[in-house]
Amino acid sequence: MKNNFTAICTNPFRDTGCALAQKTAELLGQNGFETCICPIFAENADDVLPKGLITTELQKVADRCGFIVVIGGDGTLLSVARQIKGRSIPIIGVNLGSMGFMALLEPDELDYVLKAAQGGGKLSRRMKIDVSVIRGGDIIYTDCALNDVVVHGYGECINVTAQCNGDNITAFSGDGIILSTPTGSTGYSMSAGGPIVEPDAQNIIISPICAHMMSSRSFVLGPDREVDVYIRKLHGRRAYLSVDGNSVLDIANRDIVHVRRSESVTLMADMGLRNFYEIAFEKLR
Description:
- It contains six helices and 16 strands.
- The chain has helices spanning 19-29, 58-61, 74-83, 110-117, 188-191, 276-284, and strands at residues 5-10, 34-39, 67-72, 91-95, 122-135, 138-145, 148-153, 158-164, 167-174, 176-180, 204-209, 219-221, 227-232, 239-243, 246-251, 256-270.
- The longest helix is centred in the first third of the chain and has 11 residues, at 19-29.
- The radius of gyration is 20 Å and the shape is elongated.
């Protein structure tokens, strides 16, 4: 760890009064850590932030951070990962959400936050995927996803063709297509019938969304594969690109969405309290 400056990123809509964030800051402060509280999803949160609480935006302090504590659900953690992209800062999550596949600690396990900040446990290197949108031969958008990249119609079927290294994988009419990392395999991809993949694995997972074909199946690709998704014959229909749950761009007819493994990874602190299979069994039964 490069320093003892720790950002405590909390979802104030789940962490009532930022009480857990303040408790975490006190615990870390008593043990020699410099901390700041960074509310996430707080653009319109004045009514839920306690009066007098000193906060800052994560992006203003990200370059100083040696560690990040995320208090909220997996969506909060995804938002934090997007804000620090390109930086190798270990993250640990305290779960206040409904699933908790990424936020592995519970609120009564704050002692493990301290141990993690002190360098305990192990680091899980989570694969990410880079996405670019090509229109008329030009790259018009680039991004990076920890969970998934989704091309989806606006309530209407769209025609999708997916190729892997130039070879056709699938072509169908349907609601859209998901390109997921192993971390994202327990999210939208799973809901669309995709496989559950260990989060430390290195794969790109392709899952059609409500495809109009009997033989529609997911594909699990190796990490060095590159995928091109072609959007064709929209004929006035609309489609959009979503990255880690954020709608980021309207897709036009004949756009190409290109996905490959990113050189960037997200570092997740794992204190070994429960393994992935235990979490999956508990959350998905």
